[in-house]
Amino acid sequence: MPGVGRILIVTLLAYLPELGKLNRKEIAKLVGVAPLNRDSGHRKGKRSTWGGRSEIRKVLYMAALVATRYNPVINAFYNRLLDAGKEKKLALVACMRKLLVILNAMVKSGESWTPDMAMPKH
């Protein structure tokens, strides 16, 4: 998969043995790239990402940065978010999550990368 290198693969194997065993929401929360709310009563807080396994997040950040340039699916997703007015860092964290979810699905299904696997199935 474009944007995924040896360092990310080794990091995922070492620090994320749950890869391929959890659903997309669980795996994103475990790594710390899922948007979590800060609501209390009637107050709606800002959504942010926090917690999770920082070792994976650091490497995933660099992989997503590379993927925004060389992976056509992640690049299109990133540019779509920027065109919608999202901040660059928020768009990059969304790409991190998308990359992780795609890799999780690939491990779960045992399939190789194809650009159409990143498209949602209804």
Automatic annotation (TrEMBL):
Gene Ontology molecular functions: DNA binding; transposase activity
Organism the protein comes from: Bradymonas sediminis
InterPro entries named in the record: Transpos_IS110, Transposase_20
Biological processes, Gene Ontology terms: DNA transposition
Protein name (record): Transposase IS116/IS110/IS902 C-terminal domain-containing protein
All residue ranges annotated as the Transposase IS116/IS110/IS902 C-terminal domain in the record: 1-78
Matches recorded under Pfam families: Transposase_20
